[in-house]
């Protein structure tokens, strides 16, 4: 899988941009704040239908413009055209091969893995960030999960609305049983898939991490469902999860009725990084955390390949300067000719001459991009 071309209109600092990418290594070179990351953001949008950095979609529209267009041609089994239009005056438009589509159907047509300096938040950040990671990871390779997640979110909204009514009006409580059953059933199926993904990703991450740490460290990814206590290691089969879910719901029901919202469910899940059996968030150095995240990101490539039969595109946002020589060489050796890679950097000397000879190099300055000839 790769991205063949990208077209931007009124996106961030680009009035108009048309790029064609090589199937292997593509390097975007330029000083900070010139627009390199904007290109990665646009590519990421074509995979996830949302930004990895904008809190509001309107932030991505060029100043004083009404709308922006992000369009790309993706090579999968055939060439597909993906297109997103963001507007200040209309609903976001998402198209696949010129046909209007919903986000849950759009995601999965094109797969990417993004690695950036901010990725330390995968370990250091909130459980919500890690839940979004799990959901996007599975959604890119499993259409059924995308539908399941949408169904669960609808159930949660309805149940919370009913809990609020019960809390304020002290009625409708019998209606809650119907939503409880759906919450447990759909929520359990979500959690089984999350547990399975973290297990598979953990096996791959462990092997990569051993190489990156010269066999000095053991990395474990552990799924931590909402009912887990003290990072306990649990069984994650359907019946076990459903039983624990039902028990937790019964225990918390009186408090939910008082507060007027749901207190249990996969919306409170997490997963943790363990290095040599210790919680990386609390005990690992920043260097160890960075290596653990890099191992996880590289494992994503193999996970997606195993699930879809194709490698995703990898986006590396100014990460070369964050890595020591050993990890830098390992990363580039792994990626060269294996997956399509799009890298941003401020210093082209981070790359070996041999790699540069086989790479497409683009120079980015003030929203203008020129390709090395």
Walkthrough of the structure:
With 373 residues, the chain is α/β, with parallel strands linked by helices. The chain folds into 2 domains: 1-111 and 313-373, Rossmann fold (3-Layer(aba) Sandwich); 117-309, RecF/RecN/SMC, N-terminal domain (Glutathione S-transferase Yfyf (Class Pi), Chain A, domain 2, Up-down Bundle), CATH 1.20.1050.90. The chain has helices at residues 36-48, 103-106, 121-124, 127-139, 143-169, 176-212, 238-259, 280-283, 286-308, 325-335, 353-357; strands spanning 2-11, 14-20, 25-29, 67-75, 79-87, 93-96, 99-100, 112-115, 219-224, 270-275, 278-279, 313-317, 341-345, 360-365, 368-371. Strands 2-1-4-5-6-7 form a 6-stranded antiparallel β-sheet, with helices on one face. The chain has a 6-stranded mixed β-sheet with strand order 8-12-13-3-14-15, with helices on both faces. A 3-stranded antiparallel β-sheet has the order 9-10-11. A hairpin with a 2-residue loop joins strand 1 (2-11) and strand 2. Helix 5 packs across helix 6 (176-212). It is globular. The two termini are 25 Å apart. The mean pLDDT is 92.
Keywords:
six-stranded antiparallel β-sheet; Glutathione S-transferase Yfyf (Class Pi), Chain A, domain 2; six-stranded mixed β-sheet; alpha/beta; single chain; 373 residues; 23% strand; globular; Rossmann fold; 2 domains; 11 helices; 15 strands
Secondary-structure-based class equals alpha/beta
CATH topology of the largest domain: Glutathione S-transferase Yfyf (Class Pi), Chain A, domain 2
Strand content: 15-25%
CATH class division of the largest domain: Mainly Alpha
């Amino acid at each position: 899988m790769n991205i063949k071309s990208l077209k931007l209109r009124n996106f961030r600092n680009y009035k108009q941009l048309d790029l064609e990418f090589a199937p292997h290594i593509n390097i975007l070179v330029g000083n900070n704040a010139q627009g390199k990351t904007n290109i990665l953001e646009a590519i990421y949008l074509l995979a996830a239908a949302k930004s990895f950095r904008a809190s509001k979609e309107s932030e991505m529209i060029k100043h004083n413009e009404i709308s922006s267009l992000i369009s790309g041609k993706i090579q999968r089994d055939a060439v597909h055209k993906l297109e997103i239009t963001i507007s200040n005056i209309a609903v976001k438009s998402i198209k696949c091969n010129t046909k209007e589509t919903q986000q849950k159907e759009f995601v999965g047509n094109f797969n990417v893995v993004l690695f950036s300096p901010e990725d330390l938040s995968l370990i250091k950040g909130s459980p919500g960030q890690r839940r979004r990671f799990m959901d996007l990871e599975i959604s890119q390779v499993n259409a059924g999960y995308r539908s399941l997640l949408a169904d669960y979110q609808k159930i949660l909204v309805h149940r919370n609305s009913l809990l609020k009514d019960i809390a304020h009006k002290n009625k409708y409580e019998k209606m809650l049983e119907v939503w409880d059953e759906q919450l447990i059933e759909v929520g359990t199926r979500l959690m089984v898939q999350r547990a399975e993904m973290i297990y598979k990703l953990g096996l791959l991450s462990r092997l990569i991490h051993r190489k990156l740490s010269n066999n000095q460290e053991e990395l474990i990814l552990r799924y931590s469902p909402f009912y887990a206590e003290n990072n306990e290691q649990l069984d994650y089969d359907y019946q076990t999860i459903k039983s624990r879910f039902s028990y937790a719901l019964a225990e918390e029901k009186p408090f939910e009725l008082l507060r007027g919202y749901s207190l249990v469910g996969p919306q409170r899940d997490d997963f943790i990084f363990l290095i040599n059996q210790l919680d990386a968030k609390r005990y690992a150095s920043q260097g160890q955390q960075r290596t653990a995240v890099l191992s996880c990101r590289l494992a994503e490539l193999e996970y997606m390949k195993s699930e879809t039969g194709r490698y995703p595109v990898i986006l590396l946002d100014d990460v070369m300067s964050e890595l020591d020589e050993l990890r830098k060489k390992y990363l580039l050796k792994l990626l060269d000719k294996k997956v399509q890679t799009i890298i941003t950097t401020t210093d082209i000397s981070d790359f070996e001459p041999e790699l540069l000879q086989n790479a497409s190099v683009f120079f980015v300055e003030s929203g203008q991009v020129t390709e090395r000839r």
